[in-house]
Amino acid sequence: STENWKRPKQEVNLLMHLFAQTFVDELPLLKRENVRVVFLGDISALPKRTREVFEYGLKETSKHTGMVLALAVNYGARAELARAARLLAEDVAAGRLDPSRIDEAAVAGKLYTAGLPDPELIIRTSGELRLSNYLLWQAAYSEFYITRTYWPDFNRWELLDAVLSFQGRDRRFGGIHEKEA
Q1: What are the domain boundaries of the chain?
Q2: Which residues lie closer than 8 Å to 20 by C-beta, 6 or more apart?
Q3: Which of 51, 136, 151, 180 makes an SS bond possible with 46, Cβ 3.0 to 4.6 Å?
Q4: Can you state the angle between helices 9-32 and 48-61, rounded to 10 degrees?
Q5: Which of the residues in the chain have pLDDT under 70?
């Protein structure tokens, strides 16, 4: 997250190195499985070597048509919303956009997730009960699953529990409950 830059520089550098190395290690599998990688966040601010690795992976998978793997790197939802507002303002100032045409679709089109569906399920590990500046716009109708399990211990059985919980929910998107109809 964008907040991670507040950590000690040595810790940030180690995290970036580990992330880049893991990405390099997984890239052959992603290519073999036709997975398209996208990054949510500003990767231009990353250390040069990390940025180069990520840009290479983007290029290598850009034409893939299978699953999309969206990785949040140097991402913060407030920064994302400010960026979208800035891009819309630039379009208005350049005469490419009439301000009266700015609607939810116009804002969504300037987010890092443009073209991707909003998340249906957000899983929070370690018992956390907050969004932590993550996908504030996109999470408007997401369902939440909270588990006390910490991320490193979150396994396929935990995921199955989350999916089963999700499948049992009545998603109304602002409408009335089916029993009320």
Answers
A1: 1-75
A2: 49, 50, 53, 54
A3: 51
A4: 20
A5: 177-181
